[in-house]
Amino acid sequence: MTPQPNPQVGAAVKAADRAHVFHSWSAQELIDPLAVAGAEGSYFWDYEGKRYLDFTSGLVFTNIGYQHPKVVAAIQEQAASLSTFAPAFAVEARSEAARLIAERTPGDLDKIFFTNGGAEAVENATRMARLHTDRPKVLSAYRSYHGATSTAINLTGDPRRWPSDSAAAGVVHFWAPFLYRSPFYSDDEQQECERALQHLEDTIAFEGPATVAAVILETVPGTAGIMTPPAGYLAGVREICDRYGIVFVLDEVMAGFGRTGKWFAADHFGVTPDLMTFAKGVNSGYVPLGGVAISGAIAETFARRPYPGGLTYSGHPLACAAAVATINVMEEEGIVDQAAAIGENVLGPALRELAERHPSVGEVRGTGVFWALELVKNRETREPLVPYNAAGEANAPMAAFGAAAKARGLWPFINMNRTHVVPPCNISEAEAKEGLAALDEALSVADEHTA
């Protein structure tokens, strides 16, 4: 689709937004939201007719791109036949979505509890774990994000938690492995894995194993930096949880449904959790949907005991129809394999080559269409390009980098001192190279702030 400029409509959209929309995570008078006129595939455009290649996939959810015709048609058809229905009934779209998801989850995660998004999935997974074990505490990693609802935000390990942290939510944080900024002073990945596992076991020991209901981890942390865990770490966590009767929860809200080049990131590690949360890519974000995939043992806990939780829109027919269509499209078009190939053959090599030429790039890490570039002032000291949780003038170098990318038609994902490369899973090679060329130019701006 060719964008047609219509600045008058754009101005009206912007004015209504500024007058009435309260935006998340923002000081309302300090933001300037772009008015979006349309989107298709890997691109979106504004009312001035400027087109952007979306290297953010929305908020890392448009795994099949914008406006896929088969998913749009499925939503339209569902709306015409049964637009909504209460969650206590068996509905074809809901049943089929659950079946398709269960077929792809690892191990015996065969029961699906539907939510409206990832945070609600984490809330309910935590509740299930506590009820299943009759224990109060949940352990979560620093450098993590699990959502903005009450329990999920307390589980989160980044600064967004701070204003809402009650210090009484039964959450204990620990350090997960991250060799580039190791809290364990490790020399290599194996040592980092061993020390991180020992740290987790020590934390459990000092908290009291009989008080710990669950350990929750993002399989591959997303917003916190796309740190792929070292070989053996997740298997080690699984073994520790089994030894102490602790529920192991993997959060695949961002990493799931093809993002890492597998249906689920857990498939890279051969690990099956007791509970797995999902959302985002399950239907490419076309209609809000999330859920918890539940193991047989935990499902059995609630076989004759009511589960005390539910949502008015759980398994909404429109959302489930979108999920069915999305999963089928991903199968028919080989999108999971495409994500793996574009990561291995295009994104990975090109990003590593950029790192060789740009002194601002301290590390490149990722897989599939799930990559992060750690931007630094100094490669030797690894000092971040901007301080932790920087804002205002302190964040100026990252703001300049972002502005440079947007000026070149690339919409970047930026968090703290990192930029993430997270385009749709079905981005073409030509589109990926277009985005990489713009990123190359924008990194030259970041280079100006190195020492």
Outline the biggest β-sheet.
Answer: 7 strands, mixed
Portion in beta strands: 15-25%
How many helix segments? 13
Shape: globular
The helix content is 25-40%
**Number of DSSP strands?**
16
Q: Average pLDDT value?
A: 97
Oligomerization state: single chain
Q: Report low-confidence residues grouped into runs of 5 or more.
A: none
Record the strand order, biggest sheet. Answer: 4-10-9-8-7-5-6
Rg over C-alpha atoms, rounded to the nearest angstrom:
22 Å
* End-to-end Cα distance: 44 Å
**By helix and strand content, what is the structural category?**
alpha/beta
| N-to-C order of helices and strands | HEEEHHHEHEHEHEHEEEHHHEEEHEEEH
Structural description of this entry:
The chain is an alpha/beta fold and 451 residues long. The protein has 13 helices and 16 strands. A seven-stranded mixed sheet has the order 4-10-9-8-7-5-6, with helices on both faces. Strands 11, 12, 13, 15 and 16 form a five-stranded antiparallel sheet that branches. The chain is globular, with a radius of gyration of 22 Å. The mean pLDDT is 97.
